[in-house]
Input
Amino acid sequence: MPAMIDLQARVREILDEAAAKLAAVFREAAVAGVSASLDGGGKAQLATLAKVAGRRPKGAKRSAGELEELKARVAHFIAEHPGLRVEQLNKAIGTTTGEIALPLRKLIGENVVRTKGAKRATTYFAVTGRAAAKKSTRK
Output
């Protein structure tokens, strides 16, 4: 029986040492994380939290300024990368189809952007000077 007691004592000793080492590692990681966020290492996480906190409620309308800013970003991107589909635009600009649909419709209506194709195969191109002049004279 004494051998069994010695074995149990030895196992308990090893487990206690391992638990103490793990606790020390977790403590060091926690201290490093807190100090990094206080030193500015956590700026990205804080920016994400601020963005989430600043979102408008679901169903709320976007302001005219927000729409104009997005419209300008989309027009500029299409001018530099013609022939992209809406999924590709969304991925590159970081928007969703719902967010970009109205600015795209406005750009098409203002003759800043033209389309080719239908439905999901629609590609977007910037309207050049000659094409814009031709279309603006039509009524």
In short: Residues 64-137 form a domain with the Arc Repressor Mutant, subunit A fold (CATH 1.10.10.10). The first strand starts at residue 113 and ends at 116.
